[in-house]
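input
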Amino acid sequence: MTDVWEKAVFYHFIHAVMLFVLAGRKVLPALVWWFFLAGIFFFSGSLYLLAVTGAHWLGVVTPVGGICFLLGWLGLLLHPGGNGG
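output
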């Protein structure tokens, strides 16, 4: 389960850094920030719990976080200059 924990930490780190970067860009839609936060919660959170408890049913929750991450990145692609829309 060490590899599961490491994957959770990696994605948590990358997207936590993005939250700090986005916090200073007021012109981006707030929804992008919330997608990254939800992704951390569902993706990394479920992997942390899976690694600690071994409850494999948590693997069902992990894709929800992955989709949130993808939506956050899509939001950044659609608003690269942060036009506020």
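quick obs: The chain has a mean pLDDT of 88.
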